[in-house]
């Protein structure tokens, strides 16, 4: 397979048509913006200093001979020009150095080097479904079992035995009941069977419904190798055929991070910050969204007995139970795992299509300014406590994001005050 770079640099991509867009989407815009800001700051400083020197020169004209003043002004203009050149040159060198340092720190080993060093890791895809989704998710399943290259080693469909107090009927195209084998993981009972649809497809039937978080929790019951890569997502999305290879690429590039294409920053709400999730941050975000697909490693959720706290979601409120993106991000945060957003030409939220209209929590009615999803996040934050709101995990730090989010709320409040006569920050 061909190796391509995003900007003629060293960022390696897997596949003939997929490009890692980190340089174009993240590094170059940020370096350009910071360079402009730095240049304006230096220019402003030099103009202020020059104005002060002219004032001192005019004041000195009353005390010194004219000849001395003229010579000093000429010398000062020459020195100022040199300083301007030195400042701009130093700024350019500094930002180029920063760019190159960040650029090289984000590059990955070529696939051939990765294979030679450690071999292709086991990688699986996992998602959960409900009776409504089971009848419409076949396009999602088809896309996952027909990936480019070797594809996923296994695709897990996690289904509760009972959903809302009613037994779940699994269609014969998805599961051969005769292959179901009962098993147990530290007191959690389940059954797993093969699917006639495809040899890679496995169906896990849970005796206990862990809610939307089952998309990960179900797979934790059967995958115990700490380095196994688990990509989890939703049952109503049609994922690109390059997803498996792109997930391998980015998990090798960022081996200690959870990688996603959807996420943002969030904090406990107050009078100025109304609790919306903000699409701020790339290298580190508060939460990642499963809709676009999230790549993690099995060890990120703990091994053996250390895995069990993840299943306590059944003892939590409905808000945490249904807010799986926040809850799973909370589990990752507790283990010290950074959540990262990547930019890719093949794997991105804009290119994903729906296999059916899910009508899930994202579409539920809510009076909260952030919608039903964020409303549940905020309720879960109140349950866990403000120290677990994940605001400290954002890329720019809690203090910076606190000021940014409250300034944003203040501006909205002033706008509403001007047009509507009432200060409302939401």
List the helices and strands and how they pair.
Elements: E1 3-4, E2 13-14, H1 22-60, H2 66-105, H3 111-118, E3 123-128, H4 131-134, H5 138-145, E4 154-160, E5 162-163, E6 166-167, E7 181-185, E8 188-194, E9 201-206, H6 214-220, E10 229-232, E11 237-238, H7 243-253, E12 257-260, E13 263-264, E14 287-288, E15 294-297, H8 318-322, H9 324-334, E16 338-341, E17 353-354, H10 371-384, H11 398-420
Parallel strand pairs: 3-4, 3-10, 4-9, 12-16
Antiparallel strand pairs: 1-2, 5-6, 7-8, 8-9, 10-15, 11-17, 12-15, 13-14
Helix pairs in contact: 1-2
Transmembrane segments: 31-48, 84-101
Keywords: Membrane, Transmembrane, Transmembrane helix
Structure report:
Keywords: Membrane, Transmembrane, Transmembrane helix. The chain crosses the membrane at residues 31-48, 84-101. With 426 residues, this protein is an alpha/beta fold. The protein folds into 2 domains: 22-105; 121-397, Spore Coat Polysaccharide Biosynthesis Protein SpsA, Chain A, CATH 3.90.550. Helices cover 40% and strands 15% of the residues. It contains 11 helices and 17 strands. A 9-stranded mixed beta sheet has the order 7-8-9-4-3-10-15-12-16, sandwiched between helices. It has a two-stranded antiparallel sheet with strand order 1-2. A two-stranded antiparallel sheet has the order 5-6. β7 (181-185) and β8 form a beta hairpin. The radius of gyration is 27 Å and the shape is elongated. The two termini are 50 Å apart. Residues 1-15 and 104-117 have low confidence and may be disordered.
